TrEMBL record:
Pfam families, per database record: LacI, Peripla_BP_3
Entry keywords, A to Z: DNA-binding, Transcription, Transcription regulation
InterPro entries documented for this protein: HTH_LacI (IPR000843), LacI/GalR-like_sensor (IPR046335), Lambda_DNA-bd_dom_sf (IPR010982), Peripla_BP_I (IPR028082)
Protein name: Ribose operon repressor RbsR
Domain HTH lacI-type: 2-56
UniProt organism field: Oceanicola granulosus (strain ATCC BAA-861 / DSM 15982 / KCTC 12143 / HTCC2516)
PROSITE patterns in alphabetical order: HTH_LACI_2
PANTHER family to which the protein is assigned, alphabetical: HTH-TYPE TRANSCRIPTIONAL REGULATOR GALS, LACI-RELATED TRANSCRIPTIONAL REPRESSOR
Bilayer-spanning residue ranges: none
Example of a GO MF term: DNA-binding transcription factor activity
Amino acid sequence: MATLKDIAARTGLSVNTVSLALRGSRRISSDTRRKVEDAAGALDYTPNHAAKSLISRRTMTIGLLLTDVTSPVLTQVARSVELTLKKHGYVTLLAASNGDQEEESRALATFRARQVDGMLVYPNSHDALDEVARLRDAGTPVVLLAGPDDTPLDLVCIDERHGAEAAVRHLIEIGHRRIGLMSSTEMHGNRQKQQGYADALAAAGIAYDDALVVDPLGNSASHGFEAVARLMARPGPKPTALFVDNDPLAIGALRWCQLNGVAVPDDLALVGFDNVEAGAFAAIPLTTVDYPVDQVAEIAVQRLVRRIENEATPDDDTPVRIRPHLVVRQSTAART
């Protein structure tokens, strides 16, 4: 591998000047910088990050732990985080817990073994954060991308409870009273959405009805398809509207309605959550709660980098919950 000395010998400059030029120092003129960069390209020079980390005690690597990388919105989160970290000079080490607490523990242990400078964590369970807290207490900067209201950990996320409440309130305002809920009991993070659903009903004086709640037993479109079939097959009055806690589930429910003569939104209004691209291009464009992916990524990365570089401000101790907005499309309509 070519070294700084090789570039110095080729250009006739000192090693220090070459080093400063490659780091983009303003002390080096543009002509000199270009000369060094041309020589580095000709020699196929690659920076030795392992050697740098021994000196700086930093690997310039961030661990990003998500629950499910097949989730469209979490895929967007991963992309946005990776791009934002790149602007700050960091690379991303990605792992997924796949909804398993032991997998999450192994991923966190791998991050520690790789000596990442910090971690961004979307936890599998909002109620099982002891391991993440121990990492933080041991000196590893950690920022959560989801978590409970009372967490003492750094938190940057969207306000899922507010988003769900806004979605159900929209359905109430356009005349619906029998509003169903499709939400997985296995996903601990969904409790905020479930609470938002209940809050909106209570504020409108509508009784919570277990007969209108269905667990999809998963998070894919096929799970949504099967869950709405079970819900609509129950005896008694059918729901006139349905709040679904993610867009893939809602798209699956929409497909079942189309195949079974249930008109959307006339017979059943549908609202999803996350605002994934597919929802806007569904046969009936989906009303949904927007997940401001780029905003979450930008704030979380900035907070984490400040922690790593010991530049945190008092405001960084305050959890950030971004209130999402409702995107109204053709899957909801007023009751007549």
